[in-house]
Amino acid sequence: MTGKKREEQYLKELQEIYEKYAVDPSDLEKVRQACETELPITYIQNTEKAQLCLEQKEYCDFLFHKLFDELEEYHLTHGEDCGIITVDGEEEDWHHRLTPDTRTPRSIYEMYGHRSNESPRMIRALLNQLRDYSAFFAGEARGQIKGDQGEENVRKYFSMFAGKYPFRMNVVLPVKDEFARSSELDSVIVTPKGIFVCEIKNWGNEREDIYIERDDTWYVCGQHKREKKKNPFEQNIRHTLALEKYLEANGITCRLIPVVVIADSRTTIRNESGKTVLKASAVYEYIQNQLLPDTIDAQTQEKILGLLDHTGAGANAFPCKDFFAVSDVYEEAIDAVLRIRDVEYRQEQALFGQCESIIKKYDRTKTLVLLILFLLLGILAIAGIIAFRGVIKVLIGLVLLGIVCGGLASK
Question: Is the pTM higher than 0.70?
Answer without folding.
Answer: no
